[in-house]
């Protein structure tokens, strides 16, 4: 039996629950969940869908697939319903892609902590490529070329590159010029692009240009997305994949549907009801999405301000709900308190200041680097009342219940960095 560990973010959740049960007060920024309540009309659709108790088609019913096709179409990716597969989360769709696409996988380094273990579960090698200075979610183009050449020289066979637009863990969005460069490399090197766009509707400023590789290299891009992040529905498990048009895309989709048919059968009927409504994007839902993105942006920028004023380097967040600080400028100061790498840094933050973050090495980063991910979406409040208040606030970071936790974070970082 293989004894692979639990995903590090889920394991961290258990540590937090344990220590909280023992009476510790912790600020948990170690889990990538949007702490917002379910939007009322989504709950109504879930209830209305309760009667949908039959299995239904593996790829999803025609209605939900047509709605998802419309969603992609409104984002400059013209889509037919038969290019779409819905599933219980995008995680299983990504895993199915790893199963059906041969060869090894190129990943940005750092990247979301699930891509590399999924690749390994499918018997592949995950090849981490450093990210550019200005953003994460994509490999730095010249490093990508070098990594492909080096991997091939070692007898590896990279065939797929995963991009995260916007990115977890850096909370940034790759600009169109870099996306185009990656697409050009994918064409030259014959790579399939998997574009994970689960944070696409969590771009903080609606004026920010978003370019999907599916617009540039449509015949070689699979887009995955879902409702876990933008609509805070992680526990409802609704994911979607869009496959390229044409025969090669249809073959790839059929292979993923075959895996789906043997593992999860279909997305739960009531969730298809929810997804059909959500992908239809009625005005009230768009308003809710816009308010959520504003809140995510305001709090992420505030945490960015806090870590930068404590002396960290950190890319300014523009999407999703994360910051990825680098405490390298403070290495000497931190050595004095026994902090020399990512594991000792995150342990010290937890033990000395009750701040929980995810160490960078869990995301493929160098263990010796003083980097970590903080999920800023955990700061909106403990109760649904507090979370609704945060969503409605003009200036959410100065709401008393939000400020109180931000003050703990600010105090902790100030002390850590002047220790
Ligand atoms: C980049 C990224 N992709 C995919 C997922 C998985 O989402 P889902 O809930 O659709 O499985 C996550 C969740 O943390 C994520 O951060």
Automatic annotation (TrEMBL):
Domain Aminotransferase class I/classII large: 47-375
Keywords: Aminotransferase, Pyridoxal phosphate, Transferase
Enzyme Commission number(s): 2.6.1.-
Co-factor(s): pyridoxal 5'-phosphate
Molecular function terms, GO-annotated: transaminase activity
A Pfam short name: Aminotran_1_2
Membrane-spanning ranges: none
Cross-referenced CDD domains: AAT_like
Signal peptide, first to last residue: none
InterPro entries assigned: Aminotransferase_I/II_large, AspAT/PAT-like, NHTrfase_class1_PyrdxlP-BS, PyrdxlP-dep_Trfase, PyrdxlP-dep_Trfase_major, PyrdxlP-dep_Trfase_small
Family per similarity comment: Belongs to the class-I pyridoxal-phosphate-dependent aminotransferase family.
Protein name in UniProt: Aminotransferase
Species per Swiss-Prot/TrEMBL record: Streptomyces meridianus
């Amino acid at each position: 039996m293989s004894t692979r560990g639990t995903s590090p973010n889920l394991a961290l959740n258990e540590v937090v629950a344990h220590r909280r049960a023992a009476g510790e007060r912790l600020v948990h920024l170690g889990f990538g969940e949007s702490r917002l309540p379910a939007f009322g009309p989504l709950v109504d659709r879930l209830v209305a869908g309760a009667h949908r108790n039959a299995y239904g088609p593996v790829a999803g019913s025609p209605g939900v697939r047509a709605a998802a096709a419309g969603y992609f179409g409104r984002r400059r990716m013209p889509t037919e319903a038969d290019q779409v597969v819905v599933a219980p989360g995008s995680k299983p769709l990504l895993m199915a892609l790893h199963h059906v696409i041969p060869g090894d996988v190129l990943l940005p380094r750092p990247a979301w902590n699930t891509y590399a273990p999924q690749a390994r579960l499918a018997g592949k090698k995950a090849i981490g490529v450093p990210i550019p200075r200005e953003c994460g979610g994509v490999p730095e183009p010249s490093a990508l070329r070098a990594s492909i050449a080096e991997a091939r020289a070692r007898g590896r066979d990279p065939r797929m590159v995963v991009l995260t637009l916007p990115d977890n863990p850096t909370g940034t969005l790759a600009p169109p010029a870099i996306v185009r460069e990656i697409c050009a490399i994918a064409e030259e090197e014959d790579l399939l692009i998997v574009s994970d766009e689960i944070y696409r509707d969590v771009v903080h400023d609606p004026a920010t240009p978003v370019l999907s590789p599916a617009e540039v290299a449509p015949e070689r891009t699979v887009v995955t997305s879902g409702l876990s992040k933008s609509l805070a529905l992680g526990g409802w498990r609704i994911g979607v994949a869009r496959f390229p048009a044409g025969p090669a895309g249809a073959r790839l989709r059929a292979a993923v549907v075959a895996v789906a048919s043997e593992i999860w059968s279909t997305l739960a009927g009531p969730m298809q009801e929810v997804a059909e409504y959500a992908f239809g994007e009625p005005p009230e839902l768009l308003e809710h999405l816009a308010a959520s993105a504003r809140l995510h942006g305001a709090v992420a920028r505030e945490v960015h301000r806090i870590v930068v004023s404590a002396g960290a380097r950190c890319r300014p967040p523009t999407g999703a709900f994360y910051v990825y600080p680098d405490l390298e400028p403070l290495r000497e100061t931190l050595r004095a308190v026994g902090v020399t790498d990512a594991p000792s840094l995150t342990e010290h933050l937890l033990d000395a200041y009750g701040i929980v973050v995810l160490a960078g090495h869990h995301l493929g980063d160098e263990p010796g680097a003083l980097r970590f991910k903080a999920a800023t979406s955990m700061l909106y409040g403990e109760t649904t009342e507090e979370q609704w208040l945060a969503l409605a606030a003009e200036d959410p970071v100065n709401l008393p219940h939000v400020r109180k936790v931000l003050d703990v974070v600010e105090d902790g970082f100030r002390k850590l960095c002047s220790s």
